[in-house]
């Protein structure tokens, strides 16, 4: 029986926060910040703001399903009056799709109001939710992010400050989290001790920012100050940044796929340029998997830099083989297989004059389930390419991810039970090579990273409900 092969990778989310100490509204800053982070989540978006000088310090917010420019318009932005705010774009790696799951979460409780946005996935969310439910908590969503919000609110009842409550709450969390929390007078950022998901700090005049990626700071003209360190809590108040730690430093585990695929090419994470990482990956592929060809092309967007690296190292000319329709979302957003396939065709079109009669090296960032790259190889050959040699700037995916990446169960991962030769035949490529596990360290020299999706070494733990599941299906995926 032929298994359905889904396409693409699901991303995590994007978070953004702003605090203007001159008292000006920050909603427009957050809007453009979220717009720059749109690649991290395309299902919903939201902004919450508060006026720190107002007597009531009430929180105003707007959130809904859709892209940033669909959820917000001039009128909604103008209605969000406040100089401290939190924003979020979401892709549902945990919890369903729907307006009720959109963030930021705004919690009204005995001590006041909190707004929170979360990027990542917890591995102990079900246990925490059960414990909170037994003390009377009533949950409106099925997301682990709401669990964090309630836990912070609960800890705040016995903490002297909101940052102490965030610290106490995060000490109870396992897995991946980068948080932006807004209180009536403080903006707080927290990053899990392993550093799975990125978070950084920026400044523009008397406004301080927290952002998932540095590229969003560039978009609003802010200066990048530094990354929030793994295990660090930063509190922004009185135009100053105060630092504390969730726990003593531990061995870190940044998501390697931020550098390979998720982050924008123009971002810098923990001192490492994403562009440089990707060009290095392409150069390594050119050294380890050379082939005689006429042209190197990349699959937009994250495959382009790797293709440039392959071209520069191999001496084979680089060309633009695809026109990308920027108004079509990433393929994994579509819920059904036939919709995903049509999305690939609507998003990318081959420029026939570039590839006709040529031997092509096509560089892409990953092969997860196999359908997308099979369609692209077919498109190139239909356009007249004589040969298509596929080079992949990551190792084969064999294991699920529990830390905020929508990598499915292993039974749907094409590399789990298929050899590289079987995958090559399945996608109809003339040759196929992946980046080696031993090459990953060259992408981010000096940084510790998580490679669980390639090795099964889940350093952030595995959800209790997944422990007894088989790591891999015994069936091969049939193309």
From TrEMBL:
Query: SUPFAM superfamilies, per this entry?
Result: N-terminal nucleophile aminohydrolases (Ntn hydrolases) (SSF56235), PRTase-like (SSF53271)
What the entry lists under InterPro entries is as follows: GATase_2_dom, Ntn_hydrolases_N, PRTase-like, PRTase_dom, PurF, PurF_N
According to its UniProt record, the EC number is 2.4.2.14
Q: Which reaction does it catalyse?
A: 5-phospho-beta-D-ribosylamine + L-glutamate + diphosphate = 5-phospho-alpha-D-ribose 1-diphosphate + L-glutamine + H2O
Binding of Mg(2+) occurs at 302, 364-365
EC class of the enzyme, as a word: transferase
Instruction: Give residue ranges for domain Glutamine amidotransferase type-2.
Output: 13-239
Q: Which pathway or pathways does this protein act in?
A: Purine metabolism; IMP biosynthesis via de novo pathway; N(1)-(5-phospho-D-ribosyl)glycinamide from 5-phospho-alpha-D-ribose 1-diphosphate: step 1/2
- The regions listed as transmembrane in this protein's record are none
User: A single GO molecular function, which one?
Assistant: amidophosphoribosyltransferase activity
Cofactor(s) needed for function: Mg(2+); [4Fe-4S] cluster
List, from the UniProt record, the residues annotated as the active site of this protein: 13 (nucleophile)
Could you say which residues bind [4Fe-4S] cluster here?
A: 255, 401, 450, 453
What remark does the entry make about the cofactor? Answer: Binds 1 Mg(2+) ion per subunit.
Name the keywords, alphabetized.
4Fe-4S, Glutamine amidotransferase, Glycosyltransferase, Iron, Iron-sulfur, Magnesium, Metal-binding, Purine biosynthesis, Transferase
Function statement: Catalyzes the formation of phosphoribosylamine from phosphoribosylpyrophosphate (PRPP) and glutamine.
Instruction: Give the record's family classification.
Output: In the C-terminal section; belongs to the purine/pyrimidine phosphoribosyltransferase family.
User: Can you say what this protein is called?
Assistant: Amidophosphoribosyltransferase
Task: Give the species.
Answer: Peptostreptococcus equinus
Gene (name only): purF
